[in-house]
Structure formats: C-alpha cells, structure tokens
Amino acid sequence: MNDLVLKVEGLTTCFDTASGSLYAVDGVGFEICRGETLALLGESGCGKSLTAFSLMRLLPTRQARIAAGRVVLGGDDLLALPELRMRDIRGNRMAMIFQEPMTSLNPVMTVGEQIAEAVVRHGKLRGRALASRVIELLDAVGIPDAAQRSNEYPHMLSGGMKQRIMIAMALAGEPDLLIADEPTTALDVTIQAQVLELMRDLQRSKGMAILLITHDLGVVAEMADRVAVMYAGQIVEQAESRDFFASPCHPYSRKLFDSLPTIAKRHQPLAIIKGNVPPLTAAGYSGCRFATRCDMAKALCEGEIPQLQDAGPGRAVRCFAYDDRYRGQWGDGASAIIPAAAARPQQQESGADGGLLAVRDLKVYFKIQKGLFKRTVGHIKAVDGVSISIGRGRTLALVGESGCGKTTVAKAILQLQRPTSGSVLFNDVELTTLGGEALRRSRADFQIIFQDPYSSMNPRMLVGDIIQEGMIALGVEPDPKRRALKVDELLQQVGLPPEAKGRYPHEFSGGQRQRVCIARALAVNPKLIICDEPTSALDISVQAQILNLLQQLQRTTGVSYLFITHNLSVVAYLADEVAVMYLGRIVEQGRVSDVLTAPRHPYTQALISAIPVIDAGTRRETIRLEGDLPSPANPPTGCHFHVRCPQARPECSLQYPEAAILEDGRMVRCVLYPRR
Amino acid sequence: MKALMIPLFILLTTVAISLGVTGLFDVRPVLLWTDALIMLLLLVLVFFIVQVRASAERRATWRQVLRSRIGMATAVILSCYVLVAALDSVHFRPAAQDAAGTAQRSGFYSMEVISVLDLLIMPLHDQMEKSYSAPFATRLYSKEVVVMADGSQQRLYPRLQYGGAHLADHEERRGTDIAWRVAQGAVAGTVLAVLLCGAGVLLVARRAGILPGQLSGVLCGRGGHLPWHVMMLTLSVIIVLIAVAFMLASGYHIFGTDKVGQDVFYQSLKSIRTALAIGTLTTLIMLPFALALGLMAGYFRGWIDDVIQYLYTTLNSIPGVLLIAAAVLMLQVFMAGHPEMFETDAARADMRLLFLCMILGITSWTGLCRLLRGETLKVREFDYVQAATSFGVGHLQIITRHVMPNVMHIVLISVVLDFSGLVLAEAILSYVGVGVDPSMFSWGNMINGARLELAREPVVWWSLLAAFSFMFVLVLAANLFSDVIRDAFDPKMRG
C-alpha cells in the first residue's frame, strides 16, 4: 500500500519521577494508510492516550518526555521538527478529538467562533467565506439548522452535539489523520451510534485515516479495519480486525474476550485476569510484561523479553507461544486456550417467591422555582410513575440512557430522596411514610453501591472504620471485638486481605475500592442492594471480577439486587428481569431473555440495536434515533418517545399509552401493543 | 514534622521554665485573659501536630509545606515571633520594693505587671531618656537649656543618660565603638550558630543513622529530605542578628527613643505579642461561628441556609470599621465607669485587647462561612455522605466525621491567609484610635504616636521605621507561608 499516512517506529515515552523513569509507552510501532481505521485497544493506564499525545507532541507534564522513536507523517519525521513547524501540522495534517466534549469547548465563545478560529488558523478565509465554511463544516457533521446553531454557546448543546462540534473543528484543517481518543465513551449508546456513523461517513467521503483509541471491544468491532492491543505500554498484538475477532492470539487478548459478560455466560463465573498491571519502570522487566498474570506462562516468559512475532498475514503477536523457537513448549499455540470454568448447573429460574420490594406508581418531581418568593413555575418530572417489584434473591436491572431518572428511582427507594407520591413497599413495610427512628432502623435492610469508587468513600477514614460505620450506626454488632472479626470476615468475603482495614481508600485500585464498597454494604446484612452502575467506571477485566463477586454473594447470602446500568451486556449476563426506562417512565419490562432477544417497544429495539456488537454474525441494522433525550421539565405530549420514534403514528402524541401485558408476561407501554 | 516539633518544643520548655522561675521567686503570677487564650492556642497547636503525626497522609502534606525552601524559612521566622510572644505572655507582679529599693517585703507586690520577656530585656525598659533621641544617638534630638558645671546656662543638645553613656567624654569614638560591637556580636553570633547547628546536625544524623558521606545530600533536602540547610541558615541569620542587637542595645538605643524617652526597640518587641494575639485569637474566636454556621447552612440547606445567609449578608453590609468603632467606644465608656473591675492597668488593657479580638472576629467570620457553605454544598452530595445517610448515621456524626474533615483545608488556608490581614487591621484600627488601649504596646500605637512627629522638622522617623520593619517581616513571612500552605492543601493546586 502506497497510501501510507502515518508510520510510527519504536516510540518510547517515559515519565521521569523521583524513583526512576516510568516507561509508559515502550517501543510502540504501527502504520496507518489512507482511509483506514486503526484501533488502539487497551485498558486504562496501558499508555494508549499517551501514545496519541506523543504523536501530537503534546505531552501532559514536564516530567514526560519522548525518549526514542520515529513518527513519520507523510514523509516528515515529526519528532525532529521544530515546535513552530509542528504547530502547522497539528490541526492541519493531523487533528485530535477528545473523550470529554463538555470540557473541550470554551464556554464563553459561540461554537461558530470556535470553529472559525480553527478554520482561520489553517486557511486564509475571511468574512462571508469564513462564515459559509463554518456552516459547511457544521452541515458536514450533521448538525441541523447549522446557521442558527453556529451562534449558540456550548452549554446550549447536548453532549452528542458538542462531540459533533469537536469533530467539525478537527475537520477544519482537512487533516490526513484524525486521532479520536475515546470519542464516544462519555456518550449514551444511541448517541454513540450516531457519532460512530458520522465518523464512518466522513472517513468514506474524505479518505481520512483514523487512529481510534478505545477500551470498548464493541466499538472496535464496528469501526476498525485493523486492531492494535496495548498492554503496559507495549503493543502485544496487531491484526486485521476480522482475524482478531475471529481468533484473538495473545493470551491477554483472549482473556479480554473471556471476561466480557454475555447472555451465553449466564450463571457461570467470568474469566478474570489475576493480579495487577506491573510497575512500568525499566528495571521491572526482565521478561514478558504479562507473564505474572498469564495462565500460559512458562519459565522462559519470566526470563526473556518477547518480541513481536509474525503470526499469519498482517498479524503480529508479542508472545513466545508464536515464536518458532519455542512453539513446541505450548503445543499448537492457537489451541492452547485455557478452557473456561466448567459450566455450573443452571440455577432454576424460579418464579418470584414472595416479593421483597414492590414500588407502585413512584413519582419524584423537583420544583422549578423562580423569583423573589420562589414561586413554583413548573416541575422536573425526574421519575413519573414507576412501578417495579423484586423477589427475594432475584436481580432486576433498570436500564436507560443518562438523564432518564434511573438514579433518582434508586434514591427514592432508599428514601435518600423523598418521593413526591407513590408507594415503596419493602418487606410489607411502607417506607414513604416511615420517618425518624423507624426509618433509621429499617435502613439495615437496603443498601447501595455507587458508580464511582473514588468518591464513594471518605478519603480521610480507614477502610476498617468505613466498613464498621454502618454496623455501629445501626447497632448490628455492638461488641467491638466481634465487630472487628466481622470486618475481617467481610473483607475476606469480597476477596481482600484483612490487613486492608488499616489502610486508606486511596491506597487501593478502582476494583479493590469497589470491593470495599460492597463489603460496606454487606456489613449490615441487607436484603436488597441497589447497585448504581457499579462497574461502569471499571475496566473490562476488573468488571468481570466485580460481577463474579456480586453473583457469588447472591448465591451465598440470597440478597436481591436492583441493578442500575446502561450496559446491556451486563444486564444480559446478570439480571433475571429487566425494566427499560425512558424519561422517567418504564416503557418495557419483562424477563431478560425475552426483552433482550425480542424487544417490543421501539425504544428498546433502538437501544439494543445501537449497542456495538462484537460478533459480526449477529450484527443488526442500527435503528438510528434522531435527536436527544427531551428535557424532563417539558416532556413531549402523549408518548414521551414519539418525537424520536421511527414507528410513530399520529395518535402517539395524544395520550401516554396504557401498559399492556403481553403473553410472555412482559409489560409494554406503546400504542403498537394495545391494552387487552 | 520534626522541623515543626523542634521550635515548639523549645517554646514549651521556655514557657515551662519561665513559669517555674516565677514560682521560685517571690512574685505573684498574673494570668491575663489573653495569656490564657494564647496558652490554649499553643495547646491546640500541640494537639494538632500530634494528630498530624499520627496520619501518614496529612504528614505527607505538611512535609510538602516544609520541603519548600520558602516554607521552611518562613516557618522558622514565624516560630521566632511566636517564641517572643509566648515569653511575653507569662505575666507576674514582682515583689514590691520599698522606697530604698532594696528590702523586699513579702506579701506585697508591685502594681506593675511584667512578663518574662521584660525580665530578659529589663535594661531596655528601665533606661528611660528624657525625650526623643535618634537611633545610636548620644544626645537628645532637641536643644534644651542646660545648667553647666560653672552655673552658666546654655542651649545645647544634652547628653543622653544611657545612650552611649559608656563613651563618657569621647563621643567621637562612637563610630568605631559601634563597628566593634557589631563585629563582636557577629562573631559571637556566628560561633553560637555554628555550635548550635553542628550539634543539631550531629543529633539528627545520629538518630537517623545517616553516614557522614550522605550528610550533605540529606541537609540540602535532596532525595525527599527536608531542606535542613535552609532552616539552619535562617536560624543562623536570626541568631547573628540577635547577638548584634544584644551587643548594640547594651550601649545604645538602636531604634532611638520616643517622646517620653522610652526605647523604641523595646516597644517594637513588646508589640509582637499584641499583633500575634490579634492575628490568632481573632481566628480562634470566629472559627466556631464560621465552622458551625457554614457547615449547617451547606448541609441542611432549606430555611436554615436562608437564615444563615441573611445573617451574614446583613453583617457584611455594615461597614466593619464603624461597627468596631462603636463597640470599642461603648466598651471604653463601660470600663471607665467600672474601674473597680480591674486590678491593674494591664488587666484593663488586656480586656480591651480581648474585646477587640472578639469584635474583629464577629465581623470577619462571614467570608470563611461563605466559603465553607459552598464547599459543604459540594461535599454533601458525594457518594460517601449518601452512603452514610443510607446507613442511618445521624446528622451530627455525618457533619463531624464526613463533611468537616473534608472542608478543613479551606479553614487552614483561609486562617493563615487572614492572619496577615488581621495584623495590619490592628495597626490601622489603633491608628484611627479604636484599636488597642493607648497604654498597650502595639505597632499601631507606635505609628499613631509617630504620626504627628512626621510633620515636624526635623522629622522623627524611627518609630515608624521600627514598627514598619517588624510588621513587614512578620506579614511577609506569614503571606509567603500561607502561599506554600495553599499550594500544599488546595486540591485544585495539587496534581
């Protein structure tokens, strides 16, 4: 291929710290051709973003420096250029878009001005020509009413719109190479589908090369032509996307696939990668960086550093199992996959044996107040008539996009946020009318695990004290000695050593912190744990550990879960029942196997089709949803979804559809399924 | 933390020894209100340091403060000020002396309240001249009619009673004498500093088991050690300055004398306590208000928040100086009407100082309160506060255990930042005439006294200069130190 756009060889970036140099990017090399998408795949901290910043020569701190390597963009060695020339290249020949569209735009400039700035920097346009070029760019990224939108400020736009603006700015210089650093991670799945499609269209029309940095295997499968897997600063596997997804070679890649939750792995523990990423100091390596965590490791893996080995056309793997000299030790490399843990007998899908939690017509309205006397001028209907029930030892998943009111439902059930109306019947006790001491005493029965393991623990308290706090407050174990024993036991239960109780939360990794949070919730022997996106801040392999733990705890303690998430594969793996929420209301609810395989409500169908799918065989046509989630302060009349619904009819805007119970027991609220 | 412990240890031993001394001799200890509060503050400081030492995380933050050279140097300078103020806060009444000035009668004590600092610099206090004299002068600043030995009257600059008295008739030797004294002081100071630092280094090295070869690296703060060399250098400079000042002050008035002939250097030293008392006690008084109200407003929100917000907005709208002036004037009238309430003049002046602190405190809590309210609003939404609520932990416990520790950095930063402002405020208020008691030594009173003299010809400039330089060093050190503190504690500045 002669259309080579970017060639990277032996790129090494290190951080100089007091305790020696950290090689965060170590000898990375790859090539991208015109019109091609290379995905750089890896978990957090593996050095994939730093690789991108090194290419742009925009290193985040002064301690970071590019130690070695060559970056050739269309014939120029970027690392040898003076900074002044480099500024012409940035934006002009290679552009970058970032993960967080909320903070990438200047809030005091209109989006038109910001795009114009990028245009002027790289062209000589002025006046009317400039304005029309801005509008042209906005049109290109699919923003409706481009002329009007260009005069708006970033806060007036939604997250998906902002990411489009970022893409428009990146396109201003007509770059040869677009670096996209987790471009859709902060967006909802339906919006993600829109943005990914936009990127594909632009690539097709302009012939750009795209370096896509992501941790999401699904996004890679949808977008990439080739894949490079990074681990601990090195590329461990590079392959054509098709080959990679057909049969991943490196043991790390395989583990990533095994630890993905899917419906097929229900009731089996997910494969996990033991241990942690080793420290990145040069002295830390005398062998393969993955050796300590690899199931296939042999003595030689620890003693010698593996190089990238050719393993078929367009494919390279950094593993001795593919090295002709040592291949014999593993037998046939490809067949050496460690078999997944034996499938356990299917848990019987028993019907609900007496409800634990029954929520009826729950409403949470927030007042919109204006003026000197705080007159109520309207309500934000965050939760607008939600009814769910959970049986003992069962798991209900509450699914929906951000802003649909999932978390508010959780807080209202826990009475952290008092509901406006409706009933929450827990163990036959009405919680909404309970107050003071009675409510305090009953709090032991329902607990919550939060999404962000970094902000869910007081940074100034020891882990032991954090776990004990609830026990003391609720008088679960009044005797200090026995309480200390209980803490040890809990830590053991969640897979942490008892010594952990004498340490502070910041000494733990994200996954370990989430374990502490689970131990804290378990400390008061709850009957129901509300898990509010407990794994969405975690890497795939760590997510697998937490999901395994949650599943095992349910088996041993019989606790029920209300699992709030936007990740449908986790739902498919873990939950018994699922409720899909849209704008404060539940639009479809039923058994996981029914709802996920054959969704009935148009929103559920769109949601499920928007999820990037790994397996090319099961890929569906994406049902593209127009626009964004409407404001809950002013929801559309009739069915909330009809303005975005591809199957909308005139009667949809008249009245909110009644709940219909279908033959398989699921509930749907849509005019397509009239109430019988 | 050791670096902080050393001056504190010295401080406490000095205070303890001074208390012991007052017990040994036939004196009557006097505990003024502000003395008690300053001691309380020192105790709080000790408690705080013990707590910091117990927590690895907070120790690391404080190490970061001291690892900065500016932080270390200013910490040493501030400790010296605190030492002087602490010595000046142990008050007693010496046994009364009869007319002859020798025999002591036990059970009767002088009406004058003096402090341990006064004991140390007693000569400065006693060597009163008649009126103004310039720094290092041997004669008064203005001509007077003097009766000569032969009975004739002459208008000339009379010789000072103490300043340069040792020169006798050889006034022309003043220059060489001063140079000689400076040299003596410098040599003595250097020797003392070297001995002290050497002993310190050996002690530290011995305890830490550091080899002689590594010593220079450790001392210069390389490899994560504290910059001990900065500490020693600052300390040495201060010791040399003290030695030189000691040598000079025994023969001259180094900052001249004021209108009634009192040594200005003595006044400046005595003013340190006033300034520090204002700077710290005000904070001590306002802190409970600001903390309690700020946390309550942010945590409970709703009508409690409204009430507290109205309260501090209203208070903020009253011009601070007027409020202070009104309060001080009322207090003055009250005190004048009830002289029997105060045993000594010192007690009366002290009460006025305390009230000034209170009034300043009451008018200055609003800023911190507003900051705390904002931060609490943020912290209360954190998941760990929600988690605690879902465990049924009570409000008070949530506030004290989860919210307060996580807003304390704001308290620390704003307290240190406010300190220098309060020291300056004292000077300004005393200048305006609503500050501390006129009989109390303070930089503001010195400046106030120097005000008129600036208009006369020739100008009397030394009172102002002395007050200015002492205040400048203190405020500059405090400001630089607070910058370092903010860098270390403000989460936005970190990382």
List keywords for this structure.
heterodimer; A: 676 residues; alpha/beta; eight-stranded mixed β-sheet; 22 helices; 24 strands; 30% helix; globular; B: 495 residues; mainly alpha; MetI-like fold; four-stranded antiparallel β-sheet; two-stranded antiparallel ribbon; 18 helices
Summed up, what is this model?
The complex is a heterodimer of chains A (676) and B (495). With 676 residues, chain A is an alpha/beta fold.
CATH level 1 class label of the domain at 267-494 in chain B: Mainly Alpha
Q: Tally the beta strands of chain A.
A: 24
Helix and strand composition category of chain B: mainly alpha
Largest sheet of chain A: 8 strands, mixed
The radius of gyration computed from the alpha-carbon positions of chain A, rounded to a whole number of angstroms, is 27 Å
Share of helical residues of chain A: 25-40%
In terms of DSSP E residues, the strand content of chain A is: 15-25%
Task: Give a description of the structure.
The complex is a heterodimer of chains A (676) and B (495). Chain A has 676 residues and is an alpha/beta fold. Chain A has 22 helices and 24 strands. Chain A is globular. Helices cover 68% and strands 5% of the residues of chain B. The model of chain B has no long low-confidence stretch (mean pLDDT 83). Chain B is built from 18 helices and six strands. Chain B is mainly alpha-helical and 495 residues long. Chains A and B meet through helix 15, strand 18 and helix 16 of A and helix 14 and helix 15 of B.
Secondary structure: elements and pairs:
The complex is a heterodimer of chains A (676) and B (495).
Chain A: E1 4-17, E2 20-33, E3 37-41, H1 48-56, E4 64-73, E5 76-77, H2 83-89, E6 94-97, H3 101-104, H4 111-122, H5 127-140, H6 146-149, H7 159-171, E7 177-181, H8 189-206, E8 209-214, H9 217-223, E9 226-231, E10 234-240, H10 241-246, H11 251-258, H12 299-303, E11 309-310, E12 316-317, H13 327-330, E13 355-370, E14 375-391, E15 395-399, H14 406-413, E16 421-426, E17 429-430, H15 436-442, E18 446-449, H16 463-474, H17 480-493, H18 510-522, E19 528-532, H19 540-557, E20 560-565, H20 568-574, E21 577-582, E22 585-591, H21 592-597, H22 602-610, E23 660-661, E24 667-668
Helix pairs in contact in A: 4-5, 4-7, 7-8, 16-18, 17-18, 18-19
Chain B: H1 2-24, E1 27-30, H2 33-54, H3 56-67, H4 69-87, E2 91-97, E3 104-109, E4 114-115, H5 116-120, H6 122-126, E5 144-147, E6 153-156, H7 174-208, H8 215-219, H9 228-249, H10 264-300, H11 302-317, H12 320-337, H13 345-379, H14 383-390, H15 395-403, H16 408-432, H17 443-453, H18 462-489
Antiparallel strand pairs in B: 1-2, 2-3, 2-4, 5-6
Helix pairs in contact in B: 1-4, 2-10, 3-18, 4-9, 4-10, 4-18, 7-9, 10-11, 10-13, 10-16, 10-18, 11-13, 12-13, 13-16, 14-15, 16-17, 16-18, 17-18
